[in-house]
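# nightly structure sweep
# worker-07 picked up a monomer target from the shared queue
# config: single-sequence mode, recycle default, output format = structure tokens
# input follows
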Amino acid sequence: MDNQTTEQQVAQSDPAVETTTDQSQTSVLATEEQSSDINFKELIPDEYKENKALANFNNMDDFVKSYINAQRIVGAEKIPIPNKYSTEEDWKVVFSKLGAPGKPEDYKYSFKEGEVDDQMLQSFNQQAHKLGLLPQQAESLIKFYNDLNENNVIATEQQVEETRLQTEAELKKEFGPQFNKRIDQAKRLASSTLGSEFLNNTFLKDGSRLGDNIEVVKAFSNLAEKLSEDEVVKGDSSSYMTAKDIEKEITSLTEEGSAYWDKRHVNHQKSVDEVYKLRQLLNG
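# output follows
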């Protein structure tokens, strides 16, 4: 009993024993680390080492993950890739597996009511089904063309308004005080001849409406002047005054001894205001 106790004490206190134990543990750890650091490619049989499919693998973990994913793909449903010899029916099979509707009327969209013309949508669905478009592709195309058309309409309206204002400004300079009369007569004649709808909805190459084109307006105005006795173009002639009529009226209001010159006259200010308006009209 005493001998065993003594041997245990000697073993516990002997540095040589402790060193041997430490070296043994260190050797085990080193062996484990060395094992984990083994080059993965050294495990590959010689006949497969040059295979390009294994070139990107550096450890067993990546190799195993890749193998598992490959097995999942093998078990998934396959879609054959058509080639140049494939028929239209072959393509239909592919489109169907990808999610294309079975019939044109099966296309469903998220458009608001009235946002897309129904007849146009029916025609589009026929073509979309023929091409094998997926629902999300079809809806994206419709939205694209809707936005494109909307932008074109806005641009057209801006062009029309710019042309109208430009025509109006040029004709005011040319017609002077008779602008309203001549434009009214031209519109009457053009509308009775071609129709208002045709004038407003017919667009020329420069983007202007037929009814706003300066050459067209001037042509109808000149023709209306020659037909001024015609009831169609004459209109309410009492509401228009020529330059000569305006000058005559100014002369009458400003003749010597009139209320225009007599500040004490009850109609003095009225006469002054009237002459001012006539002169403004005469000067355009």
